[in-house]
Amino acid sequence: EVIAKRIAALTGQPFRTAPNKFAALGGLDAMVAGMAGLRGVAVVLLKVANDLRWLASGPRCGLGELALPENEPGSSIMPGKVNPTQCEAMVMVCTKVLGEDATVAFAGAQGQLQLNVMRPVIIDCFLHAARILGDASETFRRYTIEGTELNRGRVAALLDQSLMLVTALAPVIGYDKAAKIAHKAHVEGTTLREAAVATGWIDAARFDEVVRPEAMVGEMPAI
């Protein structure tokens, strides 16, 4: 108790001794749970980094919906491509953190009877994971998140070519006709609007009135 109070005074943190000393010697559950929190953050950041990589893929053959900042010279083998280096760095960091979480979990399970001697490797993994995850998050924010822009022209072009929008026609002209319009547009490589007008089942003005993507997102109206 005296040592815990002294450490708390030096650090300004609420250090205290474990209420059950035997449980604290044999099990390191709190450390394992703390590392699991870092794992949760890493899982989220891993998805975000990969999503940004895919959405920014291009410039011609990828999705190209996002434009990443050009932090360094582009690809030497693919002209026009912006290398997603910060996304790749984040993926590597998150992969490392997930590996260290596995180490901590295994070490936490190695308490035999009244003692677990794996505390050093758990502390090493936790502190390293927390440091690299924090550093990577800061650089990811500074060099990727803050400079990423939406490619509105590309998004509009993909939306215009989307066959999904045909669902808005089903209540107006029926499912069968709507499905045939979607098939026609797909086979002939045209837009839904062009295919729909060509069938004569709906005119251009009515199509524009019915097929409104902005009305197909958001909350559903109460019934």
Describe this structure in words.
The structure is a single chain. The protein is an all-alpha fold and about 220 residues long. The chain has two domains: about 20-155, Fumarase/aspartase (Central domain) (Fumarase C, Chain A, domain 2); about 160-215, Ribonucleotide Reductase Protein R1, domain 1 (Orthogonal Bundle), CATH 1.10.40.30. It is built from ten helices and two strands, in the order αααβααβααααα. The chain has a two-stranded antiparallel sheet. α3 (about 30-55) runs parallel beside α5 (about 120-145). The longest helix is centred in the N-terminal third of the chain and has 27 residues, at about 30-55. The radius of gyration is 27 Å and the shape is elongated. The N and C termini lie far apart (about 60 Å).
C-alpha end-to-end distance: 62 Å
Based on the structure given, which CATH architecture of the largest domain is correct?
Up-down Bundle
Main sheet summary: 2 strands, antiparallel
The chain-level mean pLDDT equals 91
For the record, the CATH class of the largest domain is Mainly Alpha
Total tally of structural domains = 2
Measured on Cα atoms, how large is the radius of gyration? Answer: 27 Å
Strand content: under 5%
The number of E-state strands comes to 2
How do the strands of the widest beta sheet line up side by side? 1-2
Could you state the CATH homologous superfamily of the largest domain? Fumarase/aspartase (Central domain)
Q: What would the CATH topology of the largest domain be?
A: Fumarase C, Chain A, domain 2
Silhouette: elongated
Low-confidence parts = none
